[in-house]
Specification:
By secondary structure, the protein is an all-alpha fold. It has nine helices and no strands.
Length: 194
């Protein structure tokens, strides 16, 4: 008779996601994982596979949550410009409020693993493309409502905003002066006025 798992897999995966997000793949040891997840190595292997498989599961969980939160933020806003302003300003605010700067788990993975691991190259690129679709949809709704100018190329602008997001997120790792980050956000938002 198979033994029932004596831990909550959802909570364990969330704990793994947090430690991987804080430390990255290479710097996270199995001891870090067992301590944070509250389970022993055999249970980790039985439930999630090896360290890389656990990391992949944690990254997939993060990207689903991240994309869902962004999609909801844009769908629940009556103003597309306001949604983008709140999104970029909120991202900067969140980074300055934190005790340490974790950045975006997906972008951290893009820098750490994607250059030499095809699976993570694909996973991080898919997340960027999904966010681009969310942005493009929002821009198209703004054009249709008359809030944004009809001459805007929604796809190109969405791609540019994703690149801006990536650059801003990476820049925030170095904790620039707040006025610098605020000026960058103001410049990004001007793209929606053209």
């Amino acid at each position: 008779m198979a033994r029932l798992r004596e831990f909550d897999e959802v909570q364990a995966l969330d704990a793994a996601m947090q430690i991987f997000w804080e430390k990255g793949f290479e710097a996270t040891s199995l001891s870090d994982l067992t301590s944070r997840m509250g389970i022993q190595r055999p249970s980790i292997y039985a439930a999630f596979g090896d360290k890389k498989q656990l990391f992949e599961a944690a990254l997939r969980k993060y990207t689903q949550i991240h994309a869902s939160n962004i999609r909801n933020q844009f769908h629940n806003s009556s103003s597309i410009r306001e949604a983008f302003r709140a999104f970029f300003e909120g991202m900067v605010e969140q980074e300055y409020m934190g005790e340490f700067n974790r950045g975006c788990f997906c972008l951290n993975t893009m820098v750490e693993l994607a250059p030499h691991d095809e699976k993570f190259e694909i996973l991080t690129r898919e997340h960027q493309m999904y966010l681009t679709v969310i942005f493009q949809d929002a821009i198209e709704r703004g054009i249709q409502s008359g809030e944004l100018k009809p001459r805007l190329n929604a796809k190109a602008l969405a791609q540019t905003l994703i690149v801006s997001l990536i650059g801003l997120t990476v820049m925030m790792k170095s904790r620039p002066e707040r006025s610098f980050a605020d000026n960058v956000v103001s410049g990004i938002l001007l793209l929606l006025a053209d």
